Amino acid sequence: MSKTTRRDFLRQSAVTAAAVGTVPYFLSSQQPILAQQASDRIRMGCIGVNGMGRGNAHGFNRLVDIVAVCDVDSEHLRNAQNDDNIGRRVDGSKINPDGYKDYRKILERDDIDVVSIGTPDHWHTKISIEAMQAGKHVFCEKPLTLTIEEDQLIRAAGKKYDKVFQVGTQQRSQRNEFALATLMVRKGLLGKIQKITCDIGGGDVGGPFAKGTPPKWLDWDVWQGQCKEVDYIPQRVHSHFRWWYEYSGGKFTDWGAHHVDCAMWALDRLKEGDGPVKFTPVIAEHPMPYKDGYPTEDNKFNTSQRFDIACTFEDGAVMHVVSHSPDGNGILFEGTEGRMYVNRGRIAGKPFEDIKDKVRDMFPDEEFNKLYNGKRFEGHKENFVRCMREGGLPVSDLYSHVQAMTVCHLCAITARLGREIAWNPKTEKTGDPQSQSFIAREQRKGYEIPRT
User: Fold this and answer.
1) Which strand ranges, in their side-by-side order, compose the sheet holding 137-140?
2) How much of the chain, in percent, has pLDDT values that exceed 70?
3) I need a surface site. Which of 84, 146, 311, 417 has the fewest CB within 10 A?
């Protein structure tokens, strides 16, 4: 089947799936992919192939055909092209994925249906929106956005282009931990939730770092993207980028994208217009002095390393986003009928002990499927592929996740300013001009994010 015929097939074979479960806003993916033959397999391009980007490519390798990879670091690009765990079709035959330094080359290809994005955080929104504009479905790593304005922009683009979009917050797909905890909270087994503690761990402290010359294999200018151009420091790039507010939100967005997301998911408070109304810095420490919310030195990690931000909802419930707690990394729910702790390895607490031998009877498959917006409960990537084929929202959909990201960004802003912030989740505005100025950032010319 030729490429043109294949694309025509995918368009002409599209059907409208029936809305099921608690899908918000509207039916996602009015034109799902229906690939019935080997020549009509889903074809993916992977943008950003180091760390989680490469790991996601490994996970997708058995579900789709990865036909192209992209990275501004030529060493990462070469490693991905030579990786047998990326360069094979589902049937085991060899693929030699094309390699690009410019992600736009992948978006231009009509034979690519979907992209996986594993770049540093400050590139996520721009590439995601442009991918949807190009007609691609999107799997994007967390944290999805760099600012609250980006939350708004990517949400608007999702509604306009209506592609299947899965965020890489795989905790939602952990059936025996976070999904079960969510069902327990929603069923009222803890009573009315009064307090939640999200222990997301503290940030790294490092520096002063020496400035240097970018290595020949890294396109430093492109790597910086929308951010202000600065001198190259090796500790700014790759696994270190998340400790700089220029490119990320530190632990607030890195692990907040997991635990804040799952806490609000359990509370069923991820609908547009919902969320905390007040953010209070109980503790907010940074590796250097801050002035008016900005670091005073440019050669050290600058995200908060020790914090406790109290996020108060209108009904009085308080969610603490903390760097350290007695229970360790995870989420502690405290309600009028008991306490329950959950992390990636276990659930603990009397409410769980009381039902652990009756879980299957109390929560049959149908209950878990509701959390999957009516789809069968399965792996995170499998759910994404299923939604591409059938239509419907995946479990970590774009719209609910940006609600969690907005809370994470507000925690970071509160920590940076070191004072309380009021927030109106319906108008998406803060209570004062200074904190409102942190909602968006100036973007470097040539790297602006599209406005749909």
Assistant:
1) 98-100, 65-70, 43-47, 114-117, 137-140, 165-167
2) 91
3) 84
Nearest to 226 by CA among 450, 401, 43: 450
Q: Answer yes or no: are the C-beta atoms of 170 and 344 closer than 8 Å.
A: no
Token pair for residue 96? Answer: 């030699």
Instruction: Outline where 119-219 has alpha helix (H).
Output: 124-133, 148-161, 180-187
Distances (CA, A) of 224 to 8, 129, 236, 300: 38, 18, 10, 17
Angle at 221 between CA 215 and CA 223, to 5 degrees: 80
148: tokens are 């609250």
Domains located in the chain, CATH noted: 3-171+381-397 (3.40.50.720), 173-367+399-436 (3.30.360.10)
Place of tokens 């608007």: 156
What is the spatial distance between Cα 53 and Cα 57, in angstroms, rounded to a whole number? Answer: 6
Residue found by looking up tokens 């929560």 in the block: 363
Q: At what angle do helices 398-417 and 256-266 cross, to 10 degrees?
A: 120
**Quick one: 419 exposed, middle or buried, by C-beta within 10 A (0-12, 13-18, 19+)?**
middle
pLDDT band for position 39 (50/70/90)?
low
The pTM of the full predicted model, rounded to 2 decimals, is: 0.92
Q: What are phi and psi of 253, to 5 degrees?
A: -100, -30
Radius of gyration of the chain (CA): 22
* Least confident segment among 9-18, 273-282, 287-296: 9-18
Residue 34 confidence (pLDDT): 41
What value does the mean pLDDT of the chain take?
92
